[in-house]
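dude i think i finally got it to work??
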Amino acid sequence: MKLDAVQKAIGHVFARPELLQQALTHRSYGTPNNERLEFLGDSVLNCVTALALFERFSSLKEGELSRLRANLVRQEALHRLANTLDLGDYLRLGEGEMRSGGHRRPSILADALEAVLAAVYLDAGFAAAKGVIDGLYAGMLAELDPSRALKDPKTALQEWLQGRRMPLPRYALADTRGEAHQQEFEVECEIAGLGLKTRGIGVSRRAAEQQSAQRALELLPKQ
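look at this
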């Protein structure tokens, strides 16, 4: 059963599996869907990540903690986590969304993950939701470097290149998809001095540029 695989991946067995089914149902499929759950899941996620950061980084100020949390809960991070769970394989989508590749769309996957977290909260309470979120974010928190994460990816990439007297990255729009009210942009980041090209996807061109810069940062030589 598909729901069993999701429950195993997140480490929570639902007493009310219909909550998980709803969390995985996009509005294009019908009702009940995951829009309201997404709203609740966003708040639960913000609370748990705020607590994790508060406990881990005792010397950081409020504004710095807020920026770190924003990095952890942004669409790109949620999309990455959703992919580790293969969440797109379990989504219920309308025919139009299915044909257009909605099960791979970052915004749909990010929203679905937030809805799943809300479903866990409704099914078993805050402690259960915190346990799932802590598990999902364990690796990301362990690798979190505040001195780097407090800068947006484009700024961090530019400073890295400037410090080595290398040419700055070039960003180019590679593709635009979706309806006018729900567009997605794909941007390529090219670093000629390293022969490196990465791509990012976002709901705005700026967001896509930031994601492509983040992916470039992850591929930079360690020196």
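The chain has a mean pLDDT of 91.
im so relieved honestly
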